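Dear colleague,

Thank you for sharing your sequence with our group. We've completed the structure prediction you requested, and as agreed, I am returning the results in plain text so they can be pasted directly into your records. Please verify that the sequence below matches your submission; if there's any discrepancy, let me know and we will rerun it promptly.
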Amino acid sequence: MVRAGCSPAQRLGALACVGLLGVLWLLWPLGPAPRAVPHSQGSPPLTILVWHWPFGQQPPELPRNTCASFGVANCLLSTDRSLLALADAVVFHHRDLQAPGAHLPLASRPPGQPWVWASLESPSHTHGLGRLGGIFNWVLSYRRDADISVPYGCLEPQQGPVPPLPPKSGLAAWVVSNFQEWHQRTRLFRQLQPHLQVDVFGQAARRPLCNSCLLPTVGRYLFYLAFENSQHRDYITEKFWRNALVAGTVPVVLGPPRATYEAFVPPNAFVHVEDFSSAHELAAFLTGMNQSSYWRYFAWRDRFRVRLISDWRERFCAICTHYPHLPRDKVYQDLERWYQA
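Please find the predicted structure tokens below.
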């Protein structure tokens, strides 16, 4: 049963992404109920100061209606650091805190101002958390137990005609740039190779695909190896949402347990490697699947469509959605321990 819904920016709206049970799950507090701080429509807009735009990129234009375009009212995003004393919350992207010369404006922090730590990287690729204890009040992350939970994608109700699936001409594809022999996904791929024909694309295979080429190329295959670069709690990335589901192919997933995927999509929307005792058994299942069994993996498309959540503006606007319901006295004393859990 699908329980998790779309963007947190829509969680308190009238339209849920995946039905009544999804709404109840999304609105149910995680742990003890936080102390709510009212923020009505008549109140001044909340101002969210983005200290670093992610990955050192030039900040985009942020007009006053930026958050309204993502369904979040009464919310302003700004990158103007002179607003530090006036901002209702300040968000810091972790990767940019690691850059040379980066620093936190601790000496200028107004008393009681909530600070948000933001990252969508996996714990295996997140370093330097040990020095950030006792600073941040809230976390913005893909994890479902984060204060501001922002997944990489979601299912929402299908409206209008269901788009046709691309015709299939290949068995399995994999797009990979970071190919390391010690990765669990690489070890599994090596075990599959003798039994399964996999066409590999990406920098690692010296067969790069342009951004507009990726989905049409992958969509020609029956299966896509949606193997995460590391396996962590709730870590399901665009490899699953975009490269497989949006492309119109069946994802073969290596990541968190099956139950985690089933919190986001129906159980028959993917193949999980942990359902098989060996790579040989997995390969035999994929190569031996008949046509009727294969097309059942797309039954979800009659009711749902994929919505990708990839715009950092939308992710930061989600802070306003959660703001009235988050405790002001919360502090992550050991952020590293929480994130590595």
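Summary note from our side: Confidence is low (pLDDT under 50) at residues 7-38.

Kind regards,
the structure core
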